[in-house]
Design brief:
The protein is of the alpha/beta class. It is 31% helix and 26% strand. The protein is globular and about 70 Å long. Flavin-adenine dinucleotide binds next to strand 8, strand 9 and helix 3.
């Protein structure tokens, strides 16, 4: 798989600058077309935040100019550069460089269609912040790299990963797209692709986030499609009221529409959080099937298995 070098063309906040959870839209551009497809993702090469490397050196009283040997290549590096470019810092929290694991690229779903954007790739990135072992507020490595280190115009190195299990359905096939949070990224790409293809199949997007006025990503794009009758949009803003409302609650409310779409041969796509959301959504699908068909849980699971086997239930979760 070959590496591509692109350029950061654009970075903009989709949430207020002081939002508790911040999300950005990125565009990276290239001189010659790259044959990507909606559903694909890219793995971006990142470097560690300078302040975290400085912090590590100070904490473990190490000299930045110390010579070290790269564990894999056996090349000689200056410690500071080695820590910035090569090492997963969480693997050497105890200061023992012998335990260093490599710094890995980070994956992001492509949020654009090649048909509309042949010379660029759009990304939707939530900035990952957490409290570290010393009780300090830290940013994830790629989050820091994409938000702080990279400047517009800087090179971005990445590999393209094809995902043939997660592709826009044929032009006349209805699509049900369930994508809370950054899970909505590939669905912007899917919808752009369908518009570019003049596809006739109905589109239904279920999107959820914290609050409507701060976290409704690509609001204008989705609402414009809805106004034109090209998209059915169901929204679940979990923190706009006392009780949580999630995408699966919208599915429950619209069970008739769900089975109507499925009767017409729809494909269901689920993208986003793997740990909780995807499980909750698939369990809801099972329960709705049980209720509709007076079926047992085993029959409902078998139904989901057969949907998956026939590629009418496609997951891209992380
Ligand atoms: C196929 C795929 C597609 C994806 N698509 C998207 C997408 O479209 N948009 C998107 O935003 N994300 C996407 N992701 C997730 C993305 O790849 C990254 O995992 C995410 O951005 C966080 O990366 P990071 O480097 O900023 O955080 P990392 O540095 O990897 O940190 C992640 C977490 O590890 C823990 N951690 C790290 N260091 C420490 C420490 N020192 N002490 C304690 N805890 C620590 C924290 O909990 C932190 O939140 C996707 C992932 C996959 C696999
Ligand atoms: N470390 C964590 O605790 C944690 C938690 C979630 C996601 N993540 C990871 O963070 C990354 C980005 O996530 P993101 O910001 O795009 O989205 P997200 O954090 O998954 O949140 C998007 C929306 O989904 C809601 N949600 C929470 N639990 C849900 C469930 N069981 N079913 C359906 N919806 C649910 C959230 O509501 P509320 O937040 O109001 O409950 C929010 O409205 C992903 O890699 C994900 O795996 C980490």
């Amino acid at each position: 798989m070959s590496k591509h070098i692109a350029k950061l063309l654009k970075r903009e906040f989709l949430t207020p600058l002081d939002a508790e959870k911040k999300t950005i839209h990125l565009e990276i551009g290239f001189d010659s077309a790259i044959p990507y497809l909606p559903g694909d993702s890219i793995a971006i090469d990142v470097v560690n935040p300078h302040n975290q490397v400085e912090y590590w050196l100070k904490k473990h009283q190490r000299d930045r100019d110390e010579k070290v040997i790269h564990r894999r290549t056996q090349e000689e590096w200056k410690l500071y550069d080695y820590l910035i470019q090569c090492v997963n810092l969480t693997s050497i929290q105890d200061g023992n460089l012998d335990r260093a694991r490599p710094l890995m690229p980070r994956f992001y779903s492509i949020a654009s269609s090649n048909l509309l954007h042949p010379r660029s790739i759009h990304l939707l990135v939530t900035i990952d912040e957490f409290i570290n072992e010393d009780n300090m507020l830290m940013m994830g490595v790629a989050s820091h790299f994409l938000l702080k280190t990279l400047a517009v115009g800087d090179p971005v190195s990445f590999k393209l990963f094809a995902n043939d299990h997660f592709r826009v359905a044929s032009a006349n096939v209805p699509m049900i797209m369930i994508g809370p949070g950054t899970g909505v990224a590939p669905f912007k790409a899917f919808l752009e692709e369908r518009i570019a293809q003049n596809a006739t199949g109905p589109n239904w997007l279920l999107f959820g986030e914290r609050n409507r006025n701060t976290h409704f990503y690509y609001e204008d794009f989705f609402q414009d499609l809805e106004k034109k009758g090209k998209l059915k949009l169901s929204l679940a803003f979990s923190r706009d009221q006392d009780e949580k409302i999630y995408v699966q609650d919208r599915l429950k409310q619209e069970a008739d529409t769900l089975f109507d779409f499925l009767d017409k041969g729809a494909t269901i796509f689920i993208c986003g959080d793997a740990k909780v959301m995807a499980k909750s959504v698939t369990e809801t699908l099972e329960k709705l099937y049980q209720k509709r068909h007076h079926a047992t849980i085993d029959e409902a699971r078998e139904w989901l298995r057969s949907l998956k086997a026939s590629k009418r239930l496609c997951l891209d979760v992380y």
